[in-house]
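S.,

Sequence below, as promised.
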Amino acid sequence: MNTQAHTCTGLHEIAAQVRAGASTASSRVEACLARISDRGTALHAFNEVHADEARAAATRIDASIKRGENPGALAGVILAIKDNIATTQGHTTCSSRFLENYRSPFDASVIQRLQSQGAILIGKTNLDEFAMGSSTENSAFGATRNPWDQTRVPGGSSGGSAAAVSAGFCDAALGSDTGGSIRQPASLCGCVGFKPTYGRISRYGLVAFGSSLDQIGPFAKDVRGCAELFEAMAGRDTLDSTTVDLPVPDCCTQLDEPLRGLRIGVPREYRTDANAPSVARALDEAIAAYKSMGATIVDVELPLTDVGISTYYVIAPAEASSNLARFDGIRYGHRATLEAGEGLEDLYAKSRSQGFGPEVQRRIMLGTYVLSSGYYDAYYNRALQVRRRIREEFDHAFTKCDVLLGPTSPIPAFEIGGKKDPWAMYLCDVYTVNTNIAGIPGISLNTSYAQEGNSTLPIGMQLQGPAFSEALLLRAARMLERTMPPSYPA
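The prediction came back faster than expected:
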């Protein structure tokens, strides 16, 4: 596939051009809608495109500028929103039949913050149902396809957001990351995906999957775009008690200044035979790039990497079982039709079995099992103990290095339908789940490419940092990006 090079312009620069009259919000919306019209149906990145609402918002911004007003730091920036983040604009479906017709009566906190700065929402993106998956094949509305090769997955669960950014349907997008759901699709689609520290960004308005693991974060075409959206969204929110009351760091001012004396930790557990040869080569190239910039490469160990998947698939389904109990067909969502003689329990069972897809049902049953009497201590409590050990393991590693480097995914994008075994699918997140378990920040950026047949596929590298080290992590990522500028499908 042909590619086009990309330079690090930033979303604020786009907004500055709009405010200065060099561009208009309306023209930018029309350009995005034209690209969606051309390729949107084939890729199925969106569940809904809000053309009328986007045009109306752009008209208001352009009128505001003509009056001499400042509509905000993100004026005219076009955003796509993962369809598990509540918006009063359109539906919020979680790509599930259960919520197919649900309209939120409120906007998520992140939506309020972004719109207050002039960002324009162009639509809601497809995802694995209730964010449960690694390929966006589990959507009740059909799979999203990778812009680099439409026979392949975009990753998941935020695959629609990653595909929309990669295809140029928007300037940036929002996703949610419970075990890698921002970083893994960013890797497979060749864009930048950033999961901040747990508690940095409000989860109010995010439909909960695993409440102690979920974090909203941005997709962008470059590191600067992610940094700018992070600054716009981060900060204490009284509507989310898990948000931290810490100053939001100024990530953008020093983003392009190289870090002197940077120590890059490379876990030996991230160098395994499970990595595709192209991924192993990409890691070596990233290490060489950092060395050329004067960074020190440090060998570190994360021995519990191989138990992260097992730990995650106890904790996350347990929390999902509790969070999804509210979807009962009574208060809202899909309600089954009862036959004569059937009662309330039948309504619950039929509504949930009809409304939830196979992967969601699988995880609810698994979560209910590990929380049940007689198994709680053997599974759930033990997983919490391992979780503490994983967090301590990261803390120890960061005494030896500033950030960790490794592959985001052990393989490039695989073919749609290529992984029928759920465990094989789960292993795609082997390098990302422990980031959520430990609550630390992680970022994926495109650094290399794999050639598979006639397909050129992007490969992402992941950087992880200590809790609340977003400014450091973004600068380290930008250092690597400067040596390996991203490109996108032409």
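The radius of gyration is 21 Å.

Coffee later?
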